[in-house]
Each structure stands twice: as structure tokens, then as C-alpha cells.
User: What shape does this take?
Amino acid sequence: MITETLNLEVNATDQVICDILSQAIVGELIGMSNFASLAESIDDVYEKMEAVEHANCERGHAEGFMAIAEKYNYEPVINLKGNYWDSIRNCFLKYAKAKDFIGCLIIQEVMLECFAVSMYRDIGKAINNEIGELFSSISREEEDHIEHSIAILQEEMNKDPLAFFKKVETIHGDCMTILAEWTASTDLRGHCGVCKGSCMKDSLHHININVASLRGNALNLYVKTLDRIGLPGRKTLQWIINLPA
Amino acid sequence: MDNQPSGIKFALIGHQDSWEKAQKFVNHIRCTGNMQDLSIDKIKEVYTYIPPRILFELAFNSKKNGEIKGAYLECFIAPDELNIAHLQKNIAKVKETCDLAAKIGASVVSLGGFSSIVLESGNVALTKIDTTNFTTGNTLTAAFICNSVEKACELWDQSLADATVLIIGSTGDIGSACISYFSGKVNKMILCARNAGPLKKQSSELSSMGVANSFSTTIKEHIKDADIIISVASSIIAENDFDELSEHTIVCDAGYPKNLQNKYLNNHDRYFLGGMGIVEKGFSSEDNIHESFYQFPLKNVAHGCLLESIVLAMDQSYCAFSKGKGNITVLDMERILEMAKLHGIEPAPLFNNEEIIRPKTLAF
Ligand SMILES: NC(=O)C1=CN([C@@H]2O[C@H](COP(=O)(O)OP(=O)(O)OC[C@H]3O[C@@H](n4cnc5c(N)ncnc54)[C@H](OP(=O)(O)O)[C@@H]3O)[C@@H](O)[C@H]2O)C=CC1
Ligand SMILES: [Fe+2]
Ligand SMILES: [Fe+2]
Assistant: This one.
């Protein structure tokens, strides 16, 4: 009897780790595709090269997660057309098609990376093996991506503060709304299409974390990043409070 | 853009003392378009993750020097986590808020409510970052408390010289200031806190100065002996501790959150909120947003701790006027009260949760 419960518990833990890996792989592949699209659409050669390099970096992350999943005999679901991820991809494409380099940077390097860095960090602490270590080390690498973008965006902000503010506000509405729905404690848009069975959000307690703190920490990093870029704190507070909850 | 507001002289660091108040201001900010209000449960999911920030700018009017500008900085501490179990998290948040105050260039900053207690328990006597000075605001708070207790004695015909005064939280910064003030002015003092060690020391120091006193770690048994109770504890007092409260006893609650939350006390005639001041020439905030969570039965009142940095800013006396614990002197209380008066800031009239307390009209 005791072994049976123990096995169930082990299965539930494996299940949630597998789902987390699925989400991470899909997220990285979306990142890779985003930078690839950006490379195609922009004209500046240096920006093109940088975008390709970035795409390659995200590809490396995806491969890392895929390899470790295989090692542990997990079978992650790699569905780039899942509800939330597909919307995020479309949101990005809108800006890429308009050759809006700064807009793309805000989506990928600020919004998506803040979520990646923070969530990977929390997951890294929660999973006590090399899978956890991989999450922690990729989290640190992604941190560099945020740092890199802050410098560029600060400059952009200084050129025309009001225009820049309006731009971030629009993108926040477009993209953060999706991320907020994806991470809300109750599914606001139905199944994500990536987790096996019911959503991993309800099973995170098997690795002693919960979606509210994952989301909270990610939002915290996002707002702090906006602060560092120089956006007005009272406005960004309003943005956060107005997100779907 | 307003990320670096200009002309800021003072800053107030604060936090909400109940989830209901946090809910009010969050929904006040959220009310764009036709969005639904957020429930407290939903607010709890984001609130404490919000980094400290300016909630609004304020303008206070000095009788002598005109308008000065400042900002209210919220630390986003959970109102129900103001205790030792969450100390590390709270210290980090208060420190972050102090850095922000320095970044916006405030000359003097009040560490309101729990933020001073939080910082001091981390043993960091933070008094200055660059050119920004931090004050706990406890000297003006204590001065307001003592002044209002004297006013209450006059109102309710209680002779101070004959009174037995119970101080809940006597070993704290504000509590010990009240003791210094009332030593020699009252008949007897009863000292109360949870830890016996500091109480014993405080009691013997008073005895050696010839001040009649006793001390206790339990409140309940001393309630009926007290003519005046001043509550300045850093935690909420158990409801049934006040069961034997006598009708004639004057009760001043100066805690934040309120120390005495029971319904019975709200019906007690001689109960008022202490440590509050009133600004003669008034103050305002952008869109008067402060009114969405800072509500009292009379206008232009604010906590003594917040008003201390405002008074210092009005006077251009930028310094850490109140620092550390146990350093408040009666002379300093008089000095800051005098300075406040000069700028039109005085102890608030007595009021409770619902109304201003006025002398009962005599029936002929
Ligand atoms: N009205 C205003 O403008 C202001 C109000 N305040 C409020 O005043 C209060 C005191 O502040 P401060 O003096 O700086 O705090 P301190 O931490 O210096 O002192 C708190 C005191 O309360 C005692 N205490 C705490 N819990 C209890 C309890 N359950 N029963 C009896 N004693 C208790 C402590 O001793 P022990 O730990 O041994 O019990 C200590 O003596 C706080 O609530 C604070 O928020 C502060 C500033 C301004
Ligand atoms: Fe990545
Ligand atoms: Fe990245």
C-alpha cells in the first residue's frame, strides 16, 4: 500500500517535470523562430547577424532541454501551435513583419525573457537534480539577454520618452496579456495544448512550488526591468494591476 | 515622464495595514475601462511581488513657508505578514524602498508604520543614503500621543497627577518616550510588554529615579487598575484582554495596525486614536488618490511618523531626527512639536474610528 502511494507520487512528480520541460522546449523554439523571423525581416546587416546568433542560442537551449528529457525517458509534447504559445508567436510576427526591431526586442528580450529567467530560476531551485541545474544555468544565460536589451532600450527611451512609453504600453497590452492568461491560477483561455492531461499548474505542488509565486516572481522581474529602462513606476504599476488575473 | 519627479523634498515610506485597504487602492488604480474589481484573493496573488514604487505625489502646505512637495512610496508588504516569520522578506522590501527614496532625491524620509520596526530588527540603523536622511518619525508621534492624552484627561475630567497609566509596548521606542514624558507627572505607571527582561530593566531604572511603577507581561490582570491606557505595541492585542475595562478608563490606541481591534472598544466612550496630527493649511495628492485608502473622520489628519519628515522638510532641517530605539528625549519631543506648530501642524483633535470626539453637551 505504502509503495503504491509512493509510486503514484513519483509518477505525479515525473509528470509535472515532463510538462515543465515541454513548456520550456516550446518556449525556446518559439524564441528561436522569433529571432529567425526577425533576421529575415530587418534590413540592417548587423541587426540581422545578431538576430541569427540569438536564434542559434535559443536553439541551443531547446536542444539542451530535449536532451535531458531523453536522458530521463520523458516524452515531452512539442506543440508550437498550443493556445498561448501560438498567440505569442503571432504577436511577435506582427512586429517582425513591420520591421519593428525595437518592438521585437521588447517582446522577446524583456517580456518573454523575464518570464524565462524568473521561472527557470524558481524551477531550478525546486528540482533537485541535473534537470534543475540545467534550468538554473539557462536562467543565468537568459539574464544576459535581458541586460543586453536594457542598454539598447534605455537609449531608445532617451530619444523620445513619450513615444517609447506608448510603444511599450501597446506591446504590454498585446503580449503580457497572453503571458498573464497563460500563468493565471485559473485557466483563462482553456488548455495550453502543451501539458499532458490536465494543466501542470495544478500539479506544481509535487515539486513544492505554485503557479502564483512563479507568476509573481516573473512579474516582479518584469516590472524591475521596466524600472531600469526608465519607464514611470506609477504607470507600470497600473499595467500590472490591469492584467487579467 | 515622471520616473524621476523633480522638486521632491520629502518621502513617506508606508504600507497598508489591512487587505481591505490594499484592495481599495488596487481597484482604484485598476478602474480603467470596464474591468471588474479584483477580489482580495486575486490581489494577494500579485501584491507582494510588486517592487516598491511611488504611488502618488503629495503637496503639504506650511503656514510659514508655503507648499512643499513629496512622494508616498509603498513597500507592498503583506498586511498580514507584519511579524517575525516574514522578517527577512520584509527587511528586503523596506531596504529596496529606502533605495528608491534616495534615487528620487528626497532630502528627508519618514519610515512609516512598521517600516522602522522592520529595519531596526535587522540591526541596520539606516539614517542616510547619499544626501537622503531617514527618520523613524517616532519623536513627533510620541509628542502627539502625550499631548492627546493630556487633552483627553481635560475632556473627561481625569486628574493626571492621580492617574495610574498602563503602557502597552512600554519597552518600545514610542512606549519608552511616553514613559519619559509622564514620569513625575502621574501617580503610577504599569509597564507592559511580552519580554520580561527589558521590562525588569526599565522598571528598576524608573524605581531608582523614584517613579512609582510595576511591570507585567500580561495585560489582562492590569486593565481594571488603569485610569489611562496607552497602547503602542507592535502587534495586535488579544480581544479578551480588555474584558475588565472600566468605563472611566481613557484608552489611546496609537498602534499601526491598530492594536485594539475589538468591537467592544469601539463602543467604549473614552477611546481615541493616538499619534495623529492635523495640517492647518491642508495637503493634497494627485487625483486625491490617498483618500482611497487613507480615511479618517476628519480632514487633513495624518500619522505623526509621516508628518515628522514633512515638518523637517518644511523647516529645511534635513536630518535623521529620530533614529534607533530608546533615544527619544522629552526635550526633542518639545522641539519637534514646536517646529511643527510653526508650520501649522498640530496634534489632531481627539477622534475615534467613526467621529470626532466632542465634549458631551450638558443637559439642563
Ligand atoms: N501613530 C503613528 O503615527 C505611529 C504609530 N506607530 C506604531 O506604534 C507601534 C510601536 O512602534 P515602535 O515603538 O516603533 O515599536 P517597537 O518595536 O520599538 O516597540 C514595540 C513594543 O511593543 C511591545 N509589544 C509587541 N507586541 C506586544 C503585545 N502583544 N503585548 C504587549 N506588548 C507588545 C514590544 O515588546 P515585546 O516585543 O517584548 O512584546 C515593544 O515594547 C507600532 O504599532 C507602530 O506601527 C509607529 C510610528 C508612528
Ligand atoms: Fe533561451
Ligand atoms: Fe534568450
Q: What stands out?
A: Chain A touches chain B through 26 residues (CB under 8 Å). Chain A has a mean pLDDT of 91. Residues 2-241 of chain A form a domain with the Ferritin fold (CATH 1.20.1260.10).
